[in-house]
């Protein structure tokens, strides 16, 4: 029999060994290009950077009474949420060919939480039955924090900005925990923390994930041949890629516009450190460069869009 965890860190590690194969299975069965272990690793990395920047101010805050043990537990919970937050991916059934597949807001996250908490509760029960110390088990407060943090990553579309955002960060009636804020910021923080190349790469992978019908077409047909053999399909794909290109620009503008509000609830002077050292690319010059380099002209040819998004490269590596 596998040895049971005896510390909370070991218990969290055990849960992660359940989550990661689930993510791999989702990626393989649902042809995911973005929601893979690579995305999970990116969110983990960004969340840890934000946590390390905030921790000294968090610990110094008299309101939080944040002891080193408390912060260590919060870091473990943040790490688990970063690993697990995209464990389940549910797409709305498609009724038309050659259209982008979509997710209904909140459905994947809700099912992720259910699956994760079911496993944790079974593990907790097992630990209790074997007399493992209470300190190694998840508390009700831990489970509430996990649920809150994963729900904070739910995005919705703002038609005025033509971009997505995380509405939980704006609900003044239900203030979020610091862990939830960190996870939300890390989940869609690649532009501000890693720059344009990482941001564009994510856009490319999301396009492939949401438009898997395009993959065999690009693999099996030259774009020039597609234009002559099936112009309607050529134009269909071109319009979808053009829409993604416009979204890339609008989303970047939205991230810059929303950033100050989204970090305002974090402790003390941490916001100054985040702006200067962590979200260092989130500035007007970055947005201007994205605007000037992203092909958004209405008559942009498909060849140029495919090259910009490096689709053939990502398909080959997928």
Question: Can you walk through the features of this model?
Answer:
A hairpin with a 4-residue loop joins strand 1 and strand 2. The chain is an all-alpha fold. It has helices spanning 8-29, 37-60, 68-84, 107-129, 140-151, 178-187, 190-194, 196-210, 214-220, 223-229, 231-263, 270-278, 284-293, 302-309, 311-317; strands spanning 156-158, 163-165. The model has no long low-confidence stretch (mean pLDDT 95). It starts with 7 loop residues before the first helix and ends with a helix. The chain has a single domain (8-317), classed as Catalytic domain of cyclic nucleotide phosphodiesterase 4b2b (Orthogonal Bundle).
> Helix count, per DSSP?
15
What is the SS-derived class? mainly alpha
Q: Uncertain runs with pLDDT below 50, 5 residues or more?
A: none
- What is the overall silhouette? globular
Number of strands: 2
CA-atom Rg in angstroms: 21 Å
Helix and strand topology:
Blueprint (H helix, E strand, L loop, with lengths): L7 H22 L7 H24 L7 H17 L22 H23 L10 H12 L4 E3 L4 E3 L12 H10 L2 H5 L1 H15 L3 H7 L2 H7 L1 H33 L6 H9 L5 H10 L8 H8 L1 H7 L1
Question: Any key phrases for this structure?
Answer:
318 residues, mainly alpha, Catalytic domain of cyclic nucleotide phosphodiesterase 4b2b, two-stranded antiparallel ribbon, 15 helices, 2 strands
């Amino acid at each position: 029999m596998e040895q049971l965890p005896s510390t909370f860190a070991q218990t969290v590690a055990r849960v992660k060994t359940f989550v990661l194969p689930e993510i791999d299975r989702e990626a393989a069965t649902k042809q995911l290009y973005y929601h893979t272990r690579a995305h999970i690793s990116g969110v983990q990395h960004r969340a840890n950077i934000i946590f390390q920047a905030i921790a000294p101010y968090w610990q110094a805050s008299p309101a939080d009474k944040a002891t080193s043990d408390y912060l260590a537990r919060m870091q473990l919970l943040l790490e688990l949420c970063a690993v697990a937050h995209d464990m389940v991916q549910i797409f709305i059934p498609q009724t038309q060919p050659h259209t982008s597949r979509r997710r209904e807001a909140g459905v994947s996250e809700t099912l992720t939480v259910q699956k994760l908490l079911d496993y944790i509760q079974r593990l907790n029960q097992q630990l209790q039955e074997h007399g493992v110390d209470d300190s190694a088990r998840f508390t009700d407060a831990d489970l509430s924090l996990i649920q809150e943090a994963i729900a904070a990553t739910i995005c919705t579309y703002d038609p005025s900005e033509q971009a997505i955002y995380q509405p939980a960060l704006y609900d003044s009636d239900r203030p979020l925990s610091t862990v939830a804020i960190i996870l939300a910021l890390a989940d869609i923080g690649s532009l501000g923390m890693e720059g344009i190349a990482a941001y564009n790469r994510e856009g490319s992978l999301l396009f492939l994930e949401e438009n898997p019908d395009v993959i065999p077409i690009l693999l099996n047909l030259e774009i020039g041949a597609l234009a002559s053999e099936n112009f309607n399909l050529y134009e269909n794909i071109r319009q979808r890629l053009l829409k993604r290109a416009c979204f890339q620009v609008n989303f970047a503008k939205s991230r810059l516009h929303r950033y100050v509000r989204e970090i305002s609830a974090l402790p003390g002077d941490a916001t100054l450190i985040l702006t200067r050292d962590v979200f260092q690319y989130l500035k007007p010059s970055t947005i201007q460069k994205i605007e000037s380099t992203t092909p958004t002209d209405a008559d942009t040819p498909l060849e140029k869009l495919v090259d910009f998004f490096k689709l053939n490269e990502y398909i080959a590596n997928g």
